[in-house]
Write a structure and sequence with these properties.
The protein has helices at about 1-15, 45. By secondary structure, it is an all-alpha fold. The protein is flat and about 60 Å long. The model has no long low-confidence stretch (mean pLDDT about 80).
Length: about 80
């Protein structure tokens, strides 16, 4: 019974996160603008992953079926 109470308390503690918008700590500023940027990014922009970091999934179906050429380096183990 105690184990279930500990697990329940842990779940409750883990689920109580802050729901406010992120902002810098008091007395701190946002990071400076990256080299070449015209403005300093907002916290939302800093937390949004770029396309390069998270590429979109490509659901393109195979439209052309080509036979694979032989791989001369695919040798049986010795």
């Amino acid at each position: 019974m105690k184990a279930w109470m500990v697990i329940g308390m842990a779940l409750l503690l883990a689920s109580c996160g802050a729901s406010d918008k992120l902002k810098p700590a008091p007395g701190e500023a946002l990071p400076i603008a990256p080299y070449g940027a015209r403005a300093t990014p907002t916290p939302t922009q800093l937390l949004t992953a770029s396309t390069q970091a998270r590429p979109q999934r490509s659901d393109e179906l195979l439209t052309q079926s080509d036979e694979r050429r032989g791989d001369e380096y695919s040798l049986p183990p010795n």
